[in-house]
Amino acid sequence: MNAAGLSVPLSTLERCFQGIIPSLVATADAEGVPNVTYVSQVHFVDDRHVALSRQFFNKTTRNLQVNPRACIELYDPVTFEAYRLRARFVREESSGPLFESMSLRIQVIASHTGMSGVFRLLAADVFEVEAVERVDGFLGQLSSDEPGDVFAAAGFRTELQGLQGVSERINRAEDLESLLETVLEALDTHFGFDHTMVLLHDEACGKLVAISSRGYGPEGIGAEIALGEGIHGTVAREGKVLRISGLDRELRYARAIRRETQLEGAPVAPEIPLPGLPDACSTLAMPLRVRDRLVGVLAAESRDPLKFDGWDEGYLQVVGNQIALGIDRMHERSVTIDRDVPGPAPETPASSRAPAAQPAAGPKHTFCFYRNDDCVFVNGEYLIRNVPGRILWKLLGSWARDGRTEFTNRELRLDASLGLPPIKDNLESRLILLRRRLEQKCPDVRLVSTGRGRFALAITGAVDLVEKESA
Question: What are the distances in angstroms from CA 432 to CA 87, 200, 226, 391, 404?
């Protein structure tokens, strides 16, 4: 027996608590009639307690009210060992840290599948575990009595080297774009996070905007997510780290509930298409914050349902804090540099303006700006909107009227028509987004850095500009 009085410490069963394989919960009513049901996940609370999420469980709840004893069977998703917990129901929690942590996971799944307000946590049912036993003969003879030995040959994790690598890349980064790219590369190199994404908080529109990614290709950059929407938006709104294993199974379950709800005639919101792996089996997302201010969200995904564990969650929080500080420092640095860059030249009289420069022969592109929502389309396809859309239209307009190709960040900051926030305008991140969207949709029009706080508009071929009130 260990110090807590259990023959198998609950803390050694971490994989069993990740929800990869559903668990069994058996209860009985006052007459001893049993009821057995599957639960998607049993939550580890501490060395002597576990919790179940109460969403439906009408029969189980009624049984516990008259007979607080329960038997819970867990399964290790790697070794497939089974463990049986003898437990006693001690309380329900409908508020507080435990409830909020369990509720966040359900909120995310509900938001993603359009079931917010329908698919929700009613209470966290807390049990005291009185005994734990491994189910003998469940799989036959195993090579080890200790769970977790299957990973013994994986080698020692060089946490310090990984943290050092990330820190060095943040410190050496010359600008925000290189910082994001090299940090995501470091997470891949040192930790094997091969599908990662950074979404920055745009205070002007109140949304998260996907600004940089690794492992996904160019698709998804520029995607906007409202706070509270899906996995990333919920993590940003709640300000809490979220780790989900068996994500695909939970989404299937939520979608099954959604179909039943629709058949009953109840209204449900549309499912939200979000950037990322369509077949992700696990996800780890955390808010990037500087003090109480939301900077963005760092997210990792995998097709491996056991990719992320408690170690990854804790360590990524350390890395994420450094990333948030690095992003904030880059924004401050950009503003400081712009103060030292001369502003735009005085307006040239119309009579003496040079004619618009006509580029060499090449493809023709039509850009259309819709004034009602600051949205820009190129060749009939959506390109960008909001502040980056207004910036692009300003640049293209100056090029078309005056043949101008050289610009500075400072003049953009001084241009009230662009609607940049007076504090923390995130101009650099908006220019990164604009540059990448142009690379995806119209590579013949490029933004090229020409020095600190300066850039040029490079155009190959012909460009037509059309402005409309609305689509």
Answer: 54, 11, 20, 12, 21
Name all contacts of 56-61 with Cβ < 8 Å and 24+ positions apart. 59/27, 59/35, 60/25, 60/27, 60/35, 61/125
Residue 113 to residue 297: CA distance in whole angstroms: 20
- What the chain holds in terms of domains, given with CATH numbers, is 10-144 (2.30.110.10), 158-336 (3.30.450.40), 350-468 (1.10.10.10)
Sign of the C-alpha dihedral computed for residues 274, 276, 282 and 285 taken in this order: negative
Nearest to 213 by CA among 243, 235, 188: 188
Coil/strand/helix, residue 43 = strand
Distance, in Å, from the CA atom of 345 to the CA atom of 332, rounded to the nearest integer, reads 25
User: Are 337 and 410 contacting, i.e. CB atoms less than 8 angstroms apart?
Assistant: no
Helix (H) or strand (E) holding 25: strand 23-28
Report the C-alpha gap between 164 and 161 in whole angstroms.
5
How do 69-75 and 224-226 pair as beta strands?
Answer: unpaired
Query: Nearest to residue 399, comparing CAs of 458, 439, 443, 451?
Result: 458
Q: List, in order, residues 6 or more apart from 220 with CB less than 8 Å away.
A: 197, 210, 213, 275, 276
For 293, half-sphere exposure in the C-beta direction (CA atoms, 13 angstrom radius) is 12
Residues 268-290 as b or e (16 or more Cβ within 10 Å = b): beebbebbbbeebbbbbbbbbbe
**% residues pLDDT > 70 (the chain):** 79
* Token pair listed for 299: 């997210």
Q: Are 222 and 228 in contact, with CB atoms under 8 Å apart?
A: no
Query: What are the φ and ψ backbone dihedral angles of 325, each rounded to 5 degrees?
Result: -65, -35
Q: Is the pLDDT of residue 149 over 70?
A: no
Helix or strand or coil: residue 400?
helix
Question: In 291-422, where do the E strands start and end?
Answer: 293-302, 364-370, 375-378, 381-384, 406-408
- The pLDDT of 16-45, averaged and rounded, is 89
Token digits for 11? 């803390």
* Beta-carbon-side half-sphere exposure of residue 307 (alpha carbons within 13 Å): 22
Q: What's this model's pTM, rounded to 2 decimal places?
A: 0.69
